[in-house]
Amino acid sequence: MITREEAEALDRADPLGARRELFVIPQNTIYLDGNSLGPLPRHVAKRLGNAVSEEWGQSLIRGWNAHGWFDLPRTLGDRIGRLIGARPGTVIAADSTSINLVKVLTAALKLKPGRHVILSDSGNFPSDLYVAQGVIKALGGAWELRIVEPESVEGAIGDDLAVLMLTEVDYRTGRRHDMKKLIAKAHQAGAFAIWDLCHSAGAFPVDLTDGHADFAVGCGYKYLNGGPGAPAFVYVRPDLQDRVEPSLAGWMGHAAPFAFDLDYRPAKGIDRLRAGTPGVLSMIALDSALDVWDGVDMQAVRDKSVRLANLFISEVEGRCASHGLKLASPRDAAGRGSQVSFHCTDGYAVMQALIAHGVIGDFRAPDIIRFGLTPLYIGFADVWDAAHILERVLAEGLWDRADFKKKAQVT
Ligand SMILES: *Cc1c(COP(=O)(O)O)cnc(C)c1O
């Protein structure tokens, strides 16, 4: 444990410290939920306002050509690609993570005829598992979704596998898979690997190229700060792109959308992963939000994230262990993403009380309180304060109120 003065000194020496000014963080708020919804980068409001009043308002239909609207999925894809080790032309921004997963899962299954197992784990985000169940049904039911414990994934990779489909970082505990090793294993078994990078992109360095990833999807509204419901992204390995047969075949992914042919012919390369018209305003918000990453070294982000997490864990354990809090995240930073979670009895009410006292994290059933650590706008003193407020909430029983126990629609 350290003193607040020591935490402040760490902030003064922090090379990423100045980035905080790029964000709108409401007064008296310690925002530890950027892994659920990133905050608003300050300059986005003006850019978006201009897109509405000038680009849409004045250019009207001409905006598609005049303002690069049509190319936004590619422009954004390349910018996101830099953060995840993907070469230009291998990523597009499009749709939602769930929808992009449908696209790559169907494509991957078609490329592995004769193999009928999709392997995933119980730490995966439920939507990913629902997508797999839905895809299997839509394709006539010939596949099996095999779900094992996260620790058993490696041993469960066998020759019957078509696709290994995993989320790199567990949304509840922050446990992180060894992506490169598991991809190599999947390839040895003759299978593809699909990765969900929702809690990876913008959280720490990812290298899809070096890892030989086949397919990946991820989210624009978490660590990438693109705003509620921001476009997601999808990656396809360069040499697979022209073999992908899109199941969501729409005109925007057609080789010549404005030829209006009656028959579908996929575009070359990653563009065939487009389906319909992109949400231009959301794309512009995300594009503008991505400016905060310009000049940022992802390794510096990771280094600070690990130090923030270690400080938070030591302060919380030092102060709150007697109240029954138990670390749910891996203690070893190497096995962790950029969040820290604790098992906590009455965790929902505890989190509501924390939020009422200015510390915003979130709750995940059955008993997890979760804190996202986002180095561009969270500092050491924030984390120190959050641990102290948590201690007060627990020691003084501030959570023990009926209104804190009533569950809202979104937790
Ligand atoms: C947030 C999240 C999603 C969300 O998918 P949407 O389609 O944007 O709702 C998917 N997978 C993981 C791992 C997530 O954390």
Tell me about this structure.
It is a single chain. The chain has helices at residues 4-12, 44-59, 63-66, 72-83, 97-110, 126-138, 153-156, 179-188, 280-289, 298-320, 347-356, 380-395, 402-405, and strands at residues 23-24, 30-31, 40-41, 91-94, 117-121, 144-148, 161-167, 192-196, 215-218, 232-236, 326-327, 339-343, 359-360, 362-364, 368-372. It is of the alpha/beta class. It has 2 domains: 4-40 and 296-405, Aspartate Aminotransferase, domain 1 (Alpha-Beta Complex); 68-293, 3-Layer(aba) Sandwich (Aspartate Aminotransferase, domain 2), CATH 3.40.640.10. The strands form 4 sheets. It has a 7-stranded mixed β-sheet, with helices on both faces. Strands 11-12-15-14 form a 4-stranded antiparallel β-sheet, with helices on one face. A two-stranded antiparallel ribbon has the order 1-3. It is globular. The mean pLDDT is 97. It binds pyridoxal-5'-phosphate. The site of pyridoxal-5'-phosphate (PLP) has 13 residues, from α5 and α6. Pyridoxal-5'-phosphate (PLP) binds next to α5 and α6.
Low-confidence stretches: none
Per CATH, the class of the largest domain reads Alpha Beta
Instruction: Please give the CATH architecture of the largest domain.
Output: 3-Layer(aba) Sandwich
Q: Please give the share of residues in helix.
A: 25-40%
- The CATH superfamily of the largest domain appears as Type I PLP-dependent aspartate aminotransferase-like (Major domain)
Number of helices: 13
CATH topology (fold) name of the largest domain: Aspartate Aminotransferase, domain 2
